[in-house]
Amino acid sequence: MHPSLLQDSVRGCPKEIPHNEKLLSLKYESLDYDNSENQLFLEEERRMSFLGFKCLEISRWVICGLIGFLTGLIACCIDIAVENLAGVKYYVVKQNIEKFTEVGGLSISLILWAVLNSAFVMVGAVIVAFFEPGAAGSGIPQIKCYLNGVKIPRVVRLKTLVVKVCGVICSVAGGLAVGKEGPMIHSGAVVAAGVSQGRSTSLKKDFKIFEYFRRDTEKRDFVSAGAAAGVSAAFGAPVGGVLFSLEEGASFWNQMLTWRIFFASMISTFTLNFFLSIYNNKPGDLSSPGLINFGRFESDVSVCLLLSSPKPCVISLSTVCLVLNPVFNILNYWLTLFRIRYVHRPCLQVMEAMLVAPLGPDQSEDYPLQLFCADGEYNSMATAFFNTPERSVRSLFHNPPGSYNPLTLSLFTLTYFFLACWTYGLTVSAGVFIPSLLIGAAWGRLFGILLAVWAVPGKYALMGAAAQLGGIVRMTLSLTVIMVEATGNVTYGLPIMLVLLTAKIVGDYFVEGLYDIHIKLQSVPFLHLEAPATSHWLTAREVMGAPVTCFNRIEKVGTIVDVLSNTSTNHNGFPVVMPVAICGLILRSQLIVLLKHKVFVELARSRLTQRKLQLKDFRDAYPRFPPIQSIHVSQDERECMMDLTEFMNPTPYTVPQETSLPRVFKLFRALGLRHLVVVDSENRVVGLVTRKDLARYHLGKHGLEEMQLAQT
Amino acid sequence: MHPSLLQDSVRGCPKEIPHNEKLLSLKYESLDYDNSENQLFLEEERRMSFLGFKCLEISRWVICGLIGFLTGLIACCIDIAVENLAGVKYYVVKQNIEKFTEVGGLSISLILWAVLNSAFVMVGAVIVAFFEPGAAGSGIPQIKCYLNGVKIPRVVRLKTLVVKVCGVICSVAGGLAVGKEGPMIHSGAVVAAGVSQGRSTSLKKDFKIFEYFRRDTEKRDFVSAGAAAGVSAAFGAPVGGVLFSLEEGASFWNQMLTWRIFFASMISTFTLNFFLSIYNNKPGDLSSPGLINFGRFESDVSVCLLLSSPKPCVISLSTVCLVLNPVFNILNYWLTLFRIRYVHRPCLQVMEAMLVAPLGPDQSEDYPLQLFCADGEYNSMATAFFNTPERSVRSLFHNPPGSYNPLTLSLFTLTYFFLACWTYGLTVSAGVFIPSLLIGAAWGRLFGILLAVWAVPGKYALMGAAAQLGGIVRMTLSLTVIMVEATGNVTYGLPIMLVLLTAKIVGDYFVEGLYDIHIKLQSVPFLHLEAPATSHWLTAREVMGAPVTCFNRIEKVGTIVDVLSNTSTNHNGFPVVMPVAICGLILRSQLIVLLKHKVFVELARSRLTQRKLQLKDFRDAYPRFPPIQSIHVSQDERECMMDLTEFMNPTPYTVPQETSLPRVFKLFRALGLRHLVVVDSENRVVGLVTRKDLARYHLGKHGLEEMQLAQT
User: Fold this and answer.
1) Are residues B332 and B366 in the same domain?
2) Can you give the residue range of the structural domain that contains A177?
3) What sequence ranges are listed for the domain CBS (chains A, B) (predicted)?
């Protein structure tokens, strides 16, 4: 039996997964980027006039505008909420200090501080751990998987969005070493998935609009726009957002789609910028887009110096790349493994989060930093520790030489490094961008100071930040553009690119990127961009699953129900044959809808007036098709026949058995397929290639390796 | 017989083409983006170790670096040559004025001026018209076609590059209303095509390196990098360059490739910047990347004003969009038609170019503008007319309010408008970017002055420039990014995007973009991004060419020679059948090499030691395979048999006959195919879909229209 991708019938808690990076889980479904061009679909498309298509195109633009607007609004809300909550916290602590310091009770204030932080973090951890574990972390690995074509359960639900937004507000206000930028990408994606469908399954509300877009192909397009809008809102980098979506979604390039993604990104940046300017009482001042802003770097000769005096740069960078990045990723890897094994109960997770909370460096926003200093004095340690991470990054970039004590800075870097490493993976919703930037900036500035060759150590800080971030997340093109857009200076492009490239090459030698580590630990069948270089040895015959369960074009209902109910195989796609040659492909979801509406040949004959099944019925059931167990089929009905002709995809893509793996891979990836039928020279079905058959092969240290498949 | 794409055996002079936009020429070959995975190829790939693939990857990076470097260098040479030639011209004229003005001979100076201009233009026109007509124009339409997958004859040859560079220097120095930016894109592409092949067919020099890259797939990847490097050098916009390549090359997105393209772009900008800074005696000052620089726009409240006071903007923009752009494109369309019919002889072409030359506004570079004014006086007309276009654009953007007299400005705009329109399409190598920007900027500033609502009319100028350029070339995403990068301010992104979008929507209503007009007039089978919306009615059965000439796996040499020699069909791809089911696909070029090396079954038996044909033999013949007529096959040899098994692609992509046109289109476009075999349910060949079968259908005013096919 062919172990096609399992439906997510067992909503696996993380603990059930045998976490091992040599395994590939079968519990993840693939998204279907290839339209099932069955008769119903073709009839609908043929009925539609040219004007109809124009209207669809316009709705797509409207939806993208809405996605951008809502994503920008959410970013704005998060920003304002964090600022106000932190404000309340500071106010309480300050009151307390003023009240107690005279009687020598500074320790009371410190305890109060820790208690407040823990309280915030607890709230954040509780909602994530108990209500929606899918909202943990930055959400970027999940969105990467979704754009790659893997359906991660519950990742684009409304509940996830709500928990994510509240969670990130709590964890940032609670002073964890986290950023609010990563979760924006996830939020944007959820907004897109919701808006584009014109209904909310969670709220049981159907607006009866955008029904045409209720399928994987369209939804995925919008989700990529949402992710881009999220990046754009977070970093004020609309082009970076587009490139992020392309880098992750990749291969399904479409000019109109890209243009819409860009539109969503632009609207999102603009919305955030506009509302924040109103909030800050400077309406119309759009000069600081994004949640984070690096401040303006003036282009000067120093950039050239960076390139002409490579020695110190190389030392500084290679230290960061060689030591800090792999250490960060490896530490986090062990920590994640530990968590998966021992910290899988929600209460334990909440407790761990609360354990980290009081350790965190804290944020002050607009509140004075001289908490424990005499008036006018300045504590550089306090600046580094008690500022918001965003501000600290900016200070490290732009403060004049001599602002920082090297000892303080190194202490800060080390502490923050371990804190950030511990924090990423906690059961709170939080991003890793800002902590990485901060560590890198501190490290870079430290080197700038120690080497003392450069007038402006802030530039070292920028390069260090790029190296650290690039080494941890291993994004390349999009990250360069994001950083260039955030610095607002194109001249920095080349050095940033070279730094990111070095960081990636060096980092890849030791360990994978942080997101890839987390994706691997979840055993997700992630498809990389190309087949492994040395896989020309393999052909479709070796990689395909065989034998395949096929249906006849007119099939007995009992057979269909039995096949669908067979939990040991749990296939999702079934070739249709007549009599032996392939004539179509039908999906489990389609069969479920057919069974639910009892589209049987005998019934159609007896009740001639019966309403014909329409595409609408499939769309209404999308995306949560009921399991086969919930559909009752009587013993009489089991003897009926079902005619699949109208509903199957009559022209599935096929390949001969001799096709090499890279060729199969290219076809699969370029068209976003879910099932690829392998046929012999007479067009008889001999096998079926699915995502997991391709994701199984990867390049290890000793050439091509094959991963094991696991049912969970 | 199936009219597959004709080989370019008749190197058609432009006059031979029945220029009609309802025709599709069959004289253009397709590029093959799909590797022919025959046994030779697979054997080579399987022999290659992991290290071998790494080396290949490194060579790709080295080549991209080289492409960037050389493109930057060429841009630098063009810039310096233009400056010096113009300098000599001004010096001569100035000498003359000083000598003759006293005796009242100003007219003599004017004549001298005109003669000098004409001389420059004549040289430029002569080399283009007589030596390499392919170097005419900006070259962007040709590169668009190449990236789209159409092989335009002679477009990436060394000779074209040399003529292009000299031509653009002459035409810019000769004071035509042209820019030197467009030709840079073409130049970059030629550099890429040359460098990546490791040899020059024109110079008969083979460096014996990069032999692996001698096929369409790889070459096209490098050409896209070259085009991006060209954009990057021209506008100092590396990200814009990448997006240009993606927008045009599209659908073959590959992350590593994109990253390499970005690398080439960065290197190119940096090289240009670096060498120009040395030339300008400010080594290391990298603040002005690109051949054109818009000057820094500070972000201020005005951007918000633009968005909050849409009325004047809308008036200004809609005027530009509604009146100027379509008029420009339509006028140029008529002019081009006229030229194709009546000005097709090289001497006539040169004469036309010389006719325009003395009319042109001129350039002064660093020479004083007060030619005819008293010391200290300032002639705004002279500024507009006698400045370099690049400088004029910058002045229009940045000069303080009140610098321009509205009457002068409107006169200038009108004159320049018609001049630019006349100039584009002359037989000189020249770009349309800068003239469009200039017209738009002047127009926008004029409106800014007349409406007088805005403190800074320079912003109107920027928006006008965007609208004009966008309306003429209809690029969207990449143009936004290019303009944002050139202004160096992300805040302008949203308004520029909205303006470009409006210009495109309005413009598309009237007439196509300038480049598309020129592509259509050449009857190029250009594939757009998606199949026409209402084409679900059509299936592969209707669009395919049938019947198809097939070969047996072991075929008689005589049959092959006869088929290849048949000039009335001139097919390029032949399915191989055994006995009736398809078992492979072989290309004309492969058969030619086989015939040339006499790979016959009988000979192989008799001479067992004969060297086996290798991939190298195919690569050596690439890309100029000899015509069949040049291969002598004796009467005895005609009776021999040829075994195609090893050389054919054993796994060509196939589709069933019922596949809808959009589905065929998607497969074709996503994989960059050249031939797609249509089979019946028993895998028998029933038809062949090629580029022209898909390009034939387009959406007209009255729904789906079909173009005629023409043999020339």
Assistant:
1) yes
2) 63-279
3) 648-706
